[in-house]
Amino acid sequence: MTNPHTAEEPTRIRALLVEDNESDAALVLASLRGTRLDVEHTRVWSRAGLSEALGHGPWDVVLCDHSMPQFDGLSALYVVRSYDADLPFIIVSGAIGEETAVAAMRNGAQDFVMKQNLRRLGAVVVREMEEARMRRSARVASRSLQAKEALLDSIVNTAADGIAVVTIGGIIEFANPALCRMIGWEAEELYGLPIEQLLQANTSASAYWESLFCSSDSDDNTPASLQTHLRGREGKLTPVEIHAGRTLLNGSRRATVVVRDISERLNSQEQMWRLAHFDDLSGLPNRLLFRQLLEQALIDAGRSRKPLALLLIDLDRFKLINDTLGHDAGDEVLREVTARLRQCLGETDIISRFGGDEFAAMIRDIGDVDAARTAATRVLAAVDKPYRINGDEYHLSASIGISTFPGDSADATALLRNAELAMYRAKDQGKNNFQFHSPQMNARSFEYVVLERFLRRAIEQDEFLIHYQPQVEVGSGRLTGAEALLRWNHPGMGMMQPDKFIPLAEETGLIVPIGRIVMMRACIAARRWQDFGLAGFRVAVNLSPRQFVQSELVADVRHILEDTGLSPESLELEITESMVMENPDRAAAILHELRAVGVKLAIDDFGTGYSSLGYLKRFPVDTIKIDRSFIKDVPADADDVAITHAVIAMGRSLRLSTVAEGVETAAQAEFLATHGCDLMQGYLISRPLPLDDMDTFLSQKCGLVIPKVKVSHA
Length: 714
Ligand code: C2E
Ligand code: CA
Ligand code: CA
Hints:
Elements lengths: L10 E8 L3 H12 L3 E8 L2 H8 L6 E4 L8 H11 L5 E5 L4 H9 L4 E4 L6 H38 L3 E6 L4 E4 L1 H7 L3 H4 L12 H12 L11 E6 L5 E13 L2 E10 L1 H15 L9 H18 L3 E9 L1 H8 L1 H18 L5 E6 L2 E6 L5 H16 L2 E3 L2 E3 L2 E9 L6 H17 L4 E4 L2 H23 L2 E10 L5 E12 L3 E3 L1 H11 L2 H21 L6 E5 L2 H5 L3 H12 L6 E6 H6 L1 H14 L2 E7 L6 H6 L4 E4 L1 H5 L5 H16 L3 E4 L5 H10 L3 E2 L10 H12 L12
Helix pairs in contact: 2-3, 11-12, 12-13, 15-16, 17-19
């Protein structure tokens, strides 16, 4: 239907006439004929007829007589209203009492027109049709508004995201249940709080709110979202993503803030990242991540000018294990290799499994390439130890290729390729060895390999000697003991000082059997000097890190004392600060065991390492040896004077005996005497002496008569 007011053409309407009298009906229709209405009609006069006609709607108006033989106006109204709430219902009647008219209007009739006054009818119909149209659209509008509100309510209440409405300025006016849940607060507690208070403060958060609240609408450049943390009750932090926008609410500006918990997303992102960057079996970074880390490390190394070494480690004959014992056993071995690599390389070194039986390690900040050599040696030794599988022992070895930065290349790809080439060369050389990419390096390795072979032979051939350096009381010069210092009398190379071969002995583990030899000889010698009259003469033996942590140390010491008959307090073991500090708990346990045996314990080279006073109290030590480097410039250098003085004073207060090393001048000795240092050793008293010369020294100093030793090296 079109609007009757605006239509130029007559408006076609469908009217339903409820009228028993045909001529009355004709009159009604005639009264409408003069208007702009073009009426199509149906006439009914019973309830059934009306119901049926209503079913053939839509109708624009119902014109209803009030009294009919089988029917009346009020009943008709009821039937119409149950069909349509807005259809205009106009009573057209000859005789209607005022009461009936009021009742009809109350029940929803729109108007009544007397049959005597039908001229009015056209205008009434037009008006009522317009009103009905407005009622209808209002009803639709209100229905849709209610629906919208209900919909919004349910969205806001059931949303998984937190939603808040805040003032421009950030004060919370509304918080939905999800937000309350995320924070662990009731909605009422949140109202009135600044939203920023619920979030972890950081600069990007402040900038976000600032641009949300302060920028003008025209240049709103608020970022699309903000990632931060929601602070819940008891400080629990939830990672969230925030989307906020400004809205007009009842005429005033507000911002709606949507807070999304992204912990799961981050978790799964992290999981995906882990999957893509780590090897499942070993838990080590995979080739991809290793490469990225290598690239980064090369940039850092370039800046800090510190060299870096790349080791490519390939297991030899691993396929054999896989083929004969199965893949589970193979996996087990790879995990064991991983654990050993982790253990034998430093914490800052990065290890990776490239796949299969191929591993890589990146060693940063190497002081010099010898560190790479040391690392490779350690890896070979670690892989070399037997593997227990199903109760049986198996052996593996590795071939290692090494490339270095800046020596070989500054580029990750080239370094990896160089290391690989070197690794194949190691395989060609008979496996179980390492090769540097650069030939000069290999030449030096070769020396090491030769030296190691020599060192092994030295143990078999007994090429070691011990020199003894006397220790005396500072004031009186009374002789109290000697430090045993190792020498290697190599048939071709002559007498070798310990710093030339001890590092290699340490690397290869040969220091353990060598150390045993030293201790044995030193105890025999001390016992012998005691037997010749030097009661309480003490011998000090140096322990290397490897010796210190090897599990048989305490048993070895006990056996050597038993075998030589030396009383435990006549043996002093020297260890360094760094050995203790590397693993203080383990060191404390070892030291307590040694203490239980009864031997004396000394901290060697004191002052060069951590020099933490705290640990001296914690560890059962008897002696501190002040390092030669401090004594050297005493009494000229004020700093060294201060340090030496402090160490002596501290030793006293802890009831430790202090020994000064490297005393070469009378001035140094005098200084030590004034400050109360207990013992000293150094060239001023004597250089380290071979056994024979030591005998002579003791005879002269203490008037002993010592027969010449027969055995050449004893
Ligand atoms: P250290 O324990 O600090 O030994 C003292 C070193 O200072 C010895 O060097 C000794 O010859 C030297 N020295 C002694 N008095 C003076 C002096 O007045 N002036 C100067 N300039 N030097 C003096 P050496 O014998 O070459 O030993 C070097 C290091 O080798 C020792 O340092 C010790 O750490 C290690 N070492 C020696 N023997 C053994 C051993 O049997 N086992 C282990 N694990 N390490 C040993
Ligand atoms: Ca020493
Ligand atoms: Ca020392």
